[in-house]
Amino acid sequence: MFRSGVGFLALFGLGWWLLATSAFDGFARLVAVVVGCAVSVGLMLTARRVLPVSAGGPFPSDRRRRFLQINGLQWLLIVVIAQVCARTGTPVLIPPLIAIVVGLHFLPLAAVFEQPRLRVPAALLSAAGASGMAVWLMNGPDTAVRLVVGLISALSLWGMAVWTVTGVAPVSGQVP
Q1: How far apart are CA 18 and CA 32, in angstroms?
Q2: Residue 20 phi/psi, 5° resolution?
Q3: At residue 60, what are phi and psi to the nearest 5 degrees?
Q4: Helix pair angle (119-137, 94-112), 10° resolution
């Protein structure tokens, strides 16, 4: 189900989408959550149906080790960001800074998996984080920061998943 990384892109896209929906209340939020869940499930089912079984198979040991190192560092930075922002009274900065870290983690992954296309979500998620920071610096409300970062990040990851399942992006080997 996680062929060629589509499952990860779909689920993490949903996480960012849920962040964006936190800017809404009531029925609008419920509808947005349902739409996000439907998009994620649809992407995973489509990947399962159209991508070859060989797509996203086991990693060779050297790639697996590097993948784990990159992701370990990413998660460590996320924890540090959350702690520092919480302790300094700026929790609104957690999503933008995490988006930048997640975006940047795609750069070494592009090299590890020999997938230059991973530079696209690197740029888009970094831009999402920078946009959220800009909203905050302009004294925008916390809900606007979450909406901007979450929406751009979700659409970026889902767009990458669509790009993969439609065959526009070549599937060669394993992608996270």
Answers
A1: 8
A2: -60, -40
A3: -60, 150
A4: 160
Q: How far apart are the C-alpha atoms of 61 and 76, rounded to whole Å? A: 22
Q: Is 97 helix (H, G, I), strand (E, B) or coil?
A: helix
Q: How far is CA 104 from CA 38, 82, 98, 101, 129, in A?
A: 28, 17, 10, 5, 11
Residue 145: the pLDDT is 98
Query: Which ranges constitute the DSSP H helices of 51-93?
Result: 61-87
- Is residue 130 within 8 Å of residue 149, measured between CB atoms? no
Torsion angle, alpha carbons of 52, 155, 28, 19, to 10: 100
CA–CA gap between residue 17 and residue 144 (Å, rounded): 13
Query: pLDDT 10s per residue in the chain (176 long)?
Result: 366 789 999 999 999 999 999 999 999 999 999 999 999 999 999 988 888 766 556 677 888 899 999 999 999 999 999 999 999 999 999 999 999 999 999 999 999 988 899 999 999 999 999 999 999 999 999 999 999 999 999 999 999 999 988 885 555 544 44
* Residue of 30, 23, 29 lying closest to 95 (CA atoms): 23
Cβ distance 98 to 152 under 8 Å?
no
Compute CA distances 111 → 5, 16, 89, 105, whole Å: 15, 25, 37, 11
